[in-house]
Structures are given as C-alpha cells and as structure tokens.
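Please predict the structure of the following assembly.
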Amino acid sequence: MHDDEPQLIERAKAGDGSAAAEVVERYQRRIYTLCVRVLGDVDAAEELTQETLIKALTGLEKFDGRASLSTWLHRIATNACYSRMRSDRVRAKSRVPWPESGELPVPSRVQGGEDALDARRRRQTVAVALDRINAEHRVVLVLRDVQGMEYEQLSEVLGVPVGTIKSRLFRARAALREAIERLESSSQHTDQQPKRGTR
Amino acid sequence: MIGGTFDFDALPNGLSEADLLAWVEADARARAEHAPGSSLDRVSRAIEADPGLGAQLESMRVDRAALGSLETPAPPMTLAQSVLEEHERQALLALSDMAAMGPRALEQQVDIDEPLSFASFPSWFKPALASAAVLALAIAAWQLIPLALPRSGPGLPAPTTGVPSDLADASGDGGTVEPAPFTIEPIEQAPVLAAEPLATVPTIASVPEPRPADVLAARLEMPTERALEMARSGRLMVVVGVDRLEPVQDAITTLSRMPIESTWRLEAPAVELVAALTEPAMLRHSGIYSDRSGPLVADRDGPLGRLEVILAATPTVHVAQVSNSPEALLGLLDVLDLLGTEARVFVTDASMPTAGSMPPPLNSDVLLWWDADPASWEPWTAIPVRFIEQR
C-alpha cells in the first residue's frame, strides 16, 4: 500500500479530481491485467476495467479502509469478472477466440525433453492452458501468481478463509499442470504426423 | 498419481494440499533448510519416496514462474480519460438525484464490491417481500383447500364429485336415503372448465420464453438473418476445435440421435464434398466410425479417390444436414456445447468448398484447412459443419 493512500482516498472522497485521476493512474494497469488474464479478451477487459474504476470512484464513500484500496479494487473487479463470465456462459463457447497463430505451443523437436520448450514457448503454453481451466481456478492463480497477492489478500478478495484459499490454489495448480501436459502431449502427437507427400 | 492428475482424497503420508502448496511456493533456500518435522520436511520425505510427486511439484513451480512472467498488454491510453469523464458525469447525475430526492438517493445505492444479496436491498424491501410471500401463500392455500378436502364441510362449498347434490347433502347428515335412479347424461361437448381452468385463479404475468431466433442471435457473432441466409446458401460453417477426441464422439453420438433433420451419415452428394475436403496425400485411417451403421467412410470414389476418416488431431470432416430454422441451428449449437470446455466453437461465413473449387479461408490462422501443410497444423480437430436447407 502506498504511504499516502489514506490521504489520497480522503481527497478523492472530497471530490478532488486530481486525486481521482491518481487512483486511476495507479491501479488501472493492475486491474486491466487481472481482467485480461481472467477473461482472455482485451476488449472485455478494457470494458470491465473501466467499469471497476468508475464503480470504485463513485462508491468510494463506502470504502472503509479496513482492506487496502488495491484489495478492494480487486474484489470489485473479480466480482465483475465472475458476473461477466456467468452472463456470457452460454455464449462463451462460440465467442472464445481461436488461438492466434503461434499461440499454441510448437511441438518439441526433442521427444520427451522438458527443456525443448524455451521460456517464451512455456509462457505461451501456460497462457493457453490458463484459458482452459475453470474460472475459479483461473482467478485464484491470476491473483496469486500474476498479481502477486498474499493469502490474506486473496481471502479478502474472494471472501473465503485462508485455508480454503490454499486448498483451492493447490487444486488450481494441479489443474493447470494437467492442462499443460495435455497441450504438450497434443503437440508431440502433431509433431509425429507425416508431412505432406511423405506417404 | 498418474500424469498430471492428483488424487486429492489420497494425498501421500497424510499431507494436505496446503503442505504441498507450501513446497511449491517456497524458495530454494526454504526448501533446503526446512526444520525437521515441518511441513516442508514432510513433503521432502514424501518426494523421496515418490519421485513422480517430486516431478509434479517441480513442474508446478516452473508453471508458477511462467505465470508470473506473463506479459500483459498495457491498457489503452484512452482508458483513464474515459473513466474520469464517466465518473464526472455520474457525479453530476448523483448531485441531480440528490437535489430531486434528498438523502434517500444515497440510501438506494447498492454495495459495489459484494455480489447481489439481501443485505444490499433497502430496509423497506424485506418487510415488503415478506408480506408479499405471506399473501401468495394465503392465495395458494385458498385455492388448494377445495382440492385437499375429500368432502364438503360446514361453510365450504360442496366439491364437484358428479354425485347429485341432494345425495351429497343427505349422506352428510348420516341419514339413509334410497338412491334415485342414476342416469348419465351423454356428453355433447367438452366441458368449459377444461378450456378455462385458471379463469378465476389469480395469475402471475408469465415471463415470455425467448424466441429461438433471439437466443441464436445471442450466440452467433453475426446477425441471425445473415446466418440463416448463409445457411440457406450452404455457406455457414461452425468449426469446432478440441484437443481430445472423446468429447467429439459423445457429441456426434448425441447429434445422430437428435430428432432434427441431422445426420452424420454421408449422403451420396456429400461424398464428393468430403473428397474435396480431404487432401489425398494425407495419412488416412479408416478408424473410429467404421463400426457405425453409417460409417463416415466413403463407399465409392470421389474426384480425389476413395476417402476415409482421418486420424484424430488432424482435420476430421463431418457433414451435418440441418434445416435452416433458428431452432435447428440452435439445437446443433446445443449439441456442440456438449463438447465442453475443451472445445472452441468458431463460427465463420467462409464458404464450404465443393469439388473442384476450394476457396481460401477468411483467416488461415484460425481454421484447419485441408490444403495446408500438415506440419503447420495445430493440435486440434476441426469439424466444419454445413447447414443445408431442408427440403
């Protein structure tokens, strides 16, 4: 938390436009990152980031300071993401963009070699796998590993005890691992297909 | 533990998920210098006994690092400005509401960081809701009383039993009455009761079911009319990508049993279609559907020769015939939903190729095209579905 956060919030509550701008400037990137990684859609992420920050500024009177402003904003954004995913549940399957060219991992040229995928490919694989696991797991992983939140913050954002957070987090890691292994397995299978004209 | 699948009900040595998580998230020093009997110590001993567990946890550590290093595009430059402008606009609106409604305008605000709940409703709402519920129960009870009572009682109207009312009245006071000759009137017309059963019952305005066209419109990324027009001309495709074949088989099985005019069985004209869709130099394998009553294997040569189903993880071609009604399209999309989260459905208006003519895809990056070099294929199975007007 920034040292000057309480003063900043008080100024923003009092209607100081520059304080509101400072709040947006400080947190827009983090909220946008959360939304992008959870929703997998930059347009929706932009929309929800905007919605989150507007709600926060408009409802700043209700912020009691028990949690940090960052935690509070993450809570609003997470709820907004869940709400969006629920409303888009039916449409999701027809709207999730097909992986862009090169987004899926290139098959390993060294069979079974863990080192065959370089760091960039690994990140791409992880990003694709993240999109495959369920929303609850994706949210907790993004909050923990991408946003760097502590267990207590996760507990406040998600409204569940720390013990539940740990359990959910480990299951999310296992689910992500399984998704990655599946992707890598598929890549290797593709790699074994004969090339055109090599019958 | 097999592969990446954990049996969470049987973690080794009484370890908890929190213990394993602590090991995954601990830094190298903490793992090396853990205290005897500590959580990390117990996990370390479990790993010594089960190297597979160690490999899984180590992979999770690598995944965590990769997640932490994901690059995310910066928010658009205009985002902050848009937020501040909208905030300002809403602040002015709130001032206007305050002027019009006084402090109640603020009371009506809903908590923004909580999911919608009773706590978020204004204080007058709960008693009002409770009163409405009591009233609804009273009305329901009043309507059910005549049905629940086997015979009439004091103060209640006689139930409709088909017995003449004089007999019912007499039996009610315990008297013995000689039954009068009983005749059944012929039924000359259906009772009005059947036509207007709820005429006297208070009804709640029903929420109209969404029209199939509306539902379809919400699920397609193009206007419904446009989609139907494409379907009529055989130029609408739904491409489904999956990374496992099993869900596809389930969906196909379900689809083949659907009452809509759909089939995965190749009709004679479709043989040529599949011929055009299949690259002859491709590895062929008459595999998974050969035991079905309508195998997806051509029984005669098309322009490019005899064709068979191609292995999973390479383009597999299926042709579905459905009518061009919104209901039918919606039904097909519902079935495609069975593919689950592993599948991605991509709707495109790319033309379905026909024999001798293969128009290029709209976006070669998102479709598996049969004329692409197999080395470029992604690990997906694509199912182009053609909508054909039902005649």
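The two ends of chain B are 54 Å apart (CA to CA). Chain B has 14 helices and four strands.
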